[in-house]
Every structure is written in C-alpha cells, then in structure tokens.
Amino acid sequence: MQGILRHTDYAARVVLHLASLGTDARVQVKDIADRRLMPAPFVRRVVARLAAAGILRTARGSGGGVRLARPAREISLLDVIRAMEGGVVLNRCVSEPGACPLSDRCPVQRTWCDATRRLEEHLEGVTFADLSTPSKRSTRKRKEP
Known about the structure:
Elements: H1 6-21, H2 29-35, H3 40-52, E1 56-59, E2 65-68, H4 77-85, H5 92-95, H6 107-124, H7 128-132
Helix pairs in contact: 1-3, 1-4, 2-3
C-alpha cells in the first residue's frame, strides 16, 4: 500500500513543530530533528524544499535557524503535500488523464477525480494552527470496572 512519502510526513512534523512554538519562533534544524525523532540530514533536505515553496524561512549564522514564513493559520496540510509531492494523486489517471485511452469515458476515473478533489478540500481546510492546538480532552468520567 502506498501512502504519503516519508519526506512528506517529516515535512508535516517540521511545520507542526514550528507552529507549536509560535509565529516568530526560530530554531535550529538539529533541534527539530532531535525533538521530532528524525535524522538531521533528512530534515535539512525537507527544510530546503519547504523554504523553496515559501512555507519556511531559513537564516544562516548566529541567530539563524528555521521559522515559518507565514502564520500557521495560513499553512494547510495540503500546502505541505504540494510542496513535497506536487499534490494528491489517488491514481495515475487523475494526474495524467491522457495516460489511459479510456479516461474520457471511464466512470472509475471520474470517481478517482472526485475523491481526489474531496480529499484536497479536506486537507486544505486543516491548518497547522489547528494541528498545533491541543485537542480538548473529554471531561466525562470513565466508569470504573
């Protein structure tokens, strides 16, 4: 089974880490790697791609580091997926309609397109401000066994 790629998962962890620290927080790649349990060289590559996509900003030297390029409420999970993978693709016929000679009359292809659109809409609605806010715990008491 194929899901999102590892570098996309790591990218989401990087952005989540920065979002949880606040808007202007700037941290070192090594700190992110250590706190989020990722190899630092991999995080550096992920950070470079996220910076190229305008999601992160990087600065070298003393006082340098990595930070969000815009507020967490303006960065969606879909933004990160697009930066790392180019978008959501449930089937090749969605991203390359001409790859299949039946695409223009295939009900399955239309279903893949519809599902992709719905998934993208959902992911676009999930911001890193949402993800970095601790969820409210249920206040209901558990029954004792």
